[in-house]
Amino acid sequence: MTISSAAGVDVGRDWLDVAIARSSEAGVAGRHFRLPNTPAAIAGIPNRLRRAGVTRVVIEATGAPAARLVRTLAEAAMPLGVVDPRRIKALRLAEGRKAKTDKLDAGLIARFALLMTDAVRPAPSPAALELRALSTRRRQLVEMIAAEKTRLKQAFEPVLMASFRLTISLLSEERARIEAMIEARTSATPEDRRKGELLRSIPGIGPTISATLMADLPELGALDNKAIASLAGVAPHIQQSGAQAGRAHIQGGRPCVRAALYMAALSAVRHDAGFKADYKAMRAAGKPAKVALIAIARKLIVAANAILKHDEPWKPAQRS
């Protein structure tokens, strides 16, 4: 489908620079406007873009500063793409542009939206965004608890040890509360409960990891195996030039999903009915332990993708 008009948004902490580019205006500066990054200003953006004839919007993945805008556009059912900033930078290099301002960046993102057919994917629902936020908060709490436990091991003053233990207890209570909220949301509908059951049928994937996959990889079951492995950050990408032998390395993807799959792989290779034989075969062939575990993590996500796509529980034949 030909996109006639697209918008790019450069998101800053205080300001949003919005540029609109049209297919008929290739190489010509398009429209631009700047708004404060506030709830009131963001609320009017969808209607303003629709009046301008915009048919897709692309934003750089900048985390918290863009979260409210992403939610607003998703609720308004605007075709939306949240793109790795490295892809935008690559377009700047390809165009040979050196100048960089917020306005120029917005125009660059708008041109990217016109050129790249894969930029837009189904926007996450408000419920999915909330679940993802809860999953992020859980990870933060886990990291804080681990840090406090490390400090406790290094302390010897009773007053500090008591403080660390109290903090660990409070953080653990909050983690349990957040986990209960995640559990409630991942089982809110019969479809969600079915997804959770299917994912937990895979050796190595328990309630926490299944919730992480549902929260942070909503595309699971809707993409092909190569795309889902790449999104999860466990797909090998070859680097080869001329006569130099190329080696494949994992890169990119979603770190939180990759970390969850690595932990699942550690568990899965201990199960006789799971991936233990695959892991042993790779180790016997000379692969390092971490390389073999990443390979198992890829098998896990491919199996999970197939399971959700076909609505069937895991079977040993689905290992790869």
Structure in words:
It is a single chain. By secondary structure, the chain is α/β, with parallel strands linked by helices. The chain is 57% helix and 13% strand. It folds into three domains: 111 residues, Nucleotidyltransferase, domain 5 (2-Layer Sandwich), CATH 3.30.420.40; 61 residues; 105 residues, no CATH class. The protein is built from 13 helices and seven strands. A hairpin with a 2-residue loop joins strand 6 and strand 7. The chain is globular and about 60 Å long.
Q: Which keywords apply here?
A:
alpha/beta, Nucleotidyltransferase, domain 5, 320 residues, globular, 3 domains
In the sheet with the most strands, the strands line up as 3-2-1-4-5
Q: What helical percentage do the residues reach?
A: 55-70%
Strand content: 5-15%
Give the low-confidence spans: none
As a whole number of angstroms, the C-alpha radius of gyration is 23 Å
If helices are DSSP runs of H or I spanning 4 or more residues, what is the number of helices? 13
Distance between the termini: 34 Å
Q: What's the order of the H and E elements?
A: EEEHHEHEHHHHHHHEEHHH
Which superfamily, in CATH terms, is the homologous superfamily of the largest domain?
ATPase, nucleotide binding domain
Number of E strands: 7
| Broad shape | globular
Mean pLDDT: 85
Q: How is the main sheet built?
A: 5 strands, mixed
In CATH's first tier, which class of the largest domain applies?
A: Alpha Beta
CATH architecture of the largest domain: 2-Layer Sandwich
* Helix-and-strand structural type: alpha/beta
